[in-house]
Write a structure and sequence with these properties.
Sig_transdc_resp-reg_C-effctor, Serine Threonine Protein Phosphatase 5, Tetratricopeptide repeat, DNA binding, disordered C terminus, 25 helices, five-stranded antiparallel β-sheet, globular
Length: 605
């Protein structure tokens, strides 16, 4: 069953597409009940105990009232199957699936579930701040990030190192070593503490074996603050030695060369504060990070890491906020080029140039080069493979996108944005039902993550095609509206959820509500300018076709970053065949016929 499709009396369960069909019709079932149904099927008629069901489907220590959650899930499964007798309650033990003769399994399409990592892997947990001052968290977090980068560079090709985003979720979290290792799928953990006092910094670290939590090695390092970065190289080398890995001499030497010159304490402090803020990816945090980085460069104008980080800030602002591309991307390109002229190993500078080429210039080959080079420079950073997967996806190279994203998922297994892109790229491939599972997993981890709510709404409004059925309006469009509304609440003014809510309302025939929401959008735009393509999508939905065309022209004039989605967002078909083809050509999204993607989205316009 786990290798294919299970069929029984008109019921078809597909593990790879994570879907249930009854008599050829897709049956909507929430992810947890559907996962429980897979577990019952895979038990081949055996009893699944209450404890096993809760552990395998919900995870350990997730619910205060697990029995109620299990009962509700079984009830939903019975309703979905249309025959309550198929799920048998075994009193005092659990549940089992009645399996009549004639059930069978067969092969399914390529797997798009999370990849299973190979080889040995290491996670460096957030260094504990021993200063008893929460305001100093930026310092311990910054040293953690730098240590992750140093170890990753040193051990490239020999052991995988988990990226920053996933490990930072364990800051100030009390969990057994074995549990953390299981969640991150690692063989070793490094944990430690940092204390800064009287111009010195002391870092204590220990290496733990994940299978039993036994400490294999521990050591303390103390330096003046000026040498804090150089200390990361020493810790990285000691960690590699402790796990008996033969480190290539040239790799160790390159780290020492890169950290040989002491760094001004004030410059380093501002840099760490900026990095701490930059990880939040919100407009206020990024703008404050820019201020700290400019202060650092005012003290040391040739500090390449600050310059590269500043370039990255300007490169992500038009994506994470409503700032105009012309006001950000040229600055990002100039700063990144300057940073690389000072130090060609600055990963953030290459990523920034890749983002400029991707979102602003739409030069796919140049963007691909920078993302690939950034991955080579820092193999522990999940951002380069994530952005490279993004590039494959918007060009319609869907299987390559999912394969490439697998690298980012291995590096950053519990990152909300990386997991959201798993759902995003399935959606772009026209596999909306499959997209729901990773998106709902993200929302379990981060209930206020607006991008996941947005993508869930898109997927619910445009489901996978069902063979033999018309491509009409989604039965889950009402639920999609709710997802868009939640996304709006947490989006800090981003107008994309509103645009898709308007489009979905119009597709549902709720034209009055769509028109009212469109007028609200225009009022908001009069106060705070919104991207032309968001307004264009909404205008097209309410029948203002000429306005939509004018806004597409405005988008090209501004180099709206949303132009990159024209090929994979089928709602833009509503422009008209010739206008849409023209827009694709101008956006450099015309691809050879042999690579034309499966544009599987329902056109709800």
């Amino acid at each position: 069953m786990s290798d294919g499709i299970w069929k029984m009396d008109g019921i078809e369960l597909d593990r790879r597409s994570f879907s249930l069909r009854r008599d050829g019709t897709i049956v909507r079932l929430d992810p947890k009940p559907l996962e429980l149904l897979f577990l019952l099927v895979e038990s081949r008629g055996g009893v699944v105990s209450h404890d096993e069901a809760l552990r395998r489907v919900w995870g350990e220590d997730v619910f205060l009232n697990g029995e109620a959650a299990l009962y509700t899930a079984v009830k939903k499964i019975r309703q979905a199957l249309g025959d309550p007798a198929l799920i048998e309650t075994v009193t005092g033990r659990g549940y089992r699936l009645r399996m009549p003769a004639g059930t069978k399994s067969e092969s399914a399409r390529p797997n798009t579930t999370l990849p299973v990592p190979e080889g040995q892997r290491l996670a460096i947990l957030p260094l504990l701040n021993l200063s008893n001052d929460p305001e100093q968290d930026y310092f311990s977090d910054g040293l953690t990030e730098e240590l992750i980068s140093a170890v990753s560079r040193l051990l490239r090709g020999q052991i995988g190192v988990i990226a920053r985003t996933s490990v930072m979720r364990y800051r100030n979290v009390s969990k057994p070593v074995e549990e953390i290792a299981r969640e991150l799928k690692v063989n070793y953990l490094v944990e430690g503490s940092v204390k800064r006092d009287s111009g010195r910094v002391r870092v204590t670290v220990q290496l733990l074996r994940s299978i039993d939590g036994i400490a294999l090695w521990s050591e303390s390092f103390e330096r003046v603050l000026d040498d804090a970065l150089a200390m990361q190289s020493e810790i990285a080398l000691a960690t590699a030695t402790a796990i008996s890995i033969q480190v290539a001499p040239h790799a160790a030497a390159s780290i020492h060369r890169g950290r040989a010159v002491p760094i001004n304490v004030e410059v380093h402090d501002r840099y760490l504060r900026a990095r701490h803020l930059l990880s939040q990816r919100t407009k206020p945090a990024i703008e404050t990070a820019i201020r700290y980085l400019r202060e650092a460069l005012a003290i040391d104008p040739v500090f390449a890491p600050a310059m590269a980080s500043l370039a990255f800030c300007y490169a992500v602002l038009p994506i994470t906020s409503l700032l105009r591309p012309h006001d950000c991307f040229p600055a990002a390109q100039g700063l990144a080029s300057d940073a690389l002229s000072l130090d060609a190993s600055q990963t953030d500078a290459h990523i920034a140039l890749g983002l400029v080429d991707f979102w602003y210039r739409r030069d796919w080959n140049a963007a691909r080069h920078h993302f690939q080079h950034a991955s080579t420079l820092n193999p522990g950073d999940s951002a380069p493979p994530m952005f490279l997967a993004h590039l494959h996806s918007i060009l319609g190279e869907h299987e390559q996108a999912l394969t490439t994203l697998g690298t980012a998922l291995i590096l950053d297994p519990i990152s909300p944005i990386v997991r959201t892109h798993h759902g995003h790229f399935l959606y772009n491939a026209g596999r909306s039902l499959e997209a729901l599972r990773p998106l709902e997993q993200v929302l379990e981890m981060a209930p206020q993550f607006w991008v996941a709510h947005l993508m869930r709404g898109k997927a619910l409004a445009t489901p996978d095609h069902v063979p033999g059925q018309s491509h009409g309006l989604s039965a889950t469009s009402g639920e999609a509206i709710s997802s868009f509304q939640v996304s709006e609440r947490f989006a800090m003014g981003n107008s994309e959820p509103l645009a898709f809510r308007i489009h979905t309302l119009a597709a549902m025939g709720r034209n009055g509500e769509a028109g009212e929401a469109f007028r609200t959008m225009l009022e908001m735009h009069s106060r705070t300018p919104s991207p032309p393509l968001h307004r264009g999508l909404a205008a097209m939905a309410v029948g203002a076709h000429s306005t939509a065309l004018e806004l597409v022209e405005e988008a090209f004039a501004e180099n709206d970053v949303r132009l990159v989605f024209l090929l994979v967002e089928s709602r833009w078909n509503g422009l008209g065949e010739s206008q849409y083809a023209d827009a694709l050509e101008r956006a450099n999204l015309v691809i050879p016929p042999s690579q034309v993607p499966n544009r599987g989205h329902v056109n709800s316009g």
